[in-house]
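Lab channel / #folding
Pinned by the channel admin:
"Please post every new chain as: sequence first, then the structure tokens as a reply. Keep commentary short and put observations after the output so the thread stays searchable."

First post following the new format, from NK:
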Amino acid sequence: MRRDFLDRYSRQDTPIHRAPAPLKIAVALAVVGLTVAMPVPTGPFWLAAAGLLAGVAAAGRIPAGYLAKRLLWFEPFIICVALAALFQPGGGERFILIFAKSTVSLLTMVLLAST
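Reply from TO:
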């Protein structure tokens, strides 16, 4: 494994990279906290979260392909957890909810590690 596997883009000089670490951690934890605490997220919430994360990735010059590869490394774990919900009442909705919340949270942490 290469030395820069998880943080290849962490040494760039962008406004996101120059932001104070405590601020980045607080924002990341707020995004994850809101995502997890939302009982049934609505369309506007998902659009806002996606817009925020896409904006951070663009401002930090983190390529979408890089983020997708990092997500693909961890998505099998998310799918295993979400599959357990399929065998409960309302399993389809629960599967989608667990998968979406976990993916948004994971993407937030990958972006945090990359900046």
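NK: The first helix runs from residue 15 to 18.
TO: also worth noting, DSSP finds five helices and no strands in the chain.
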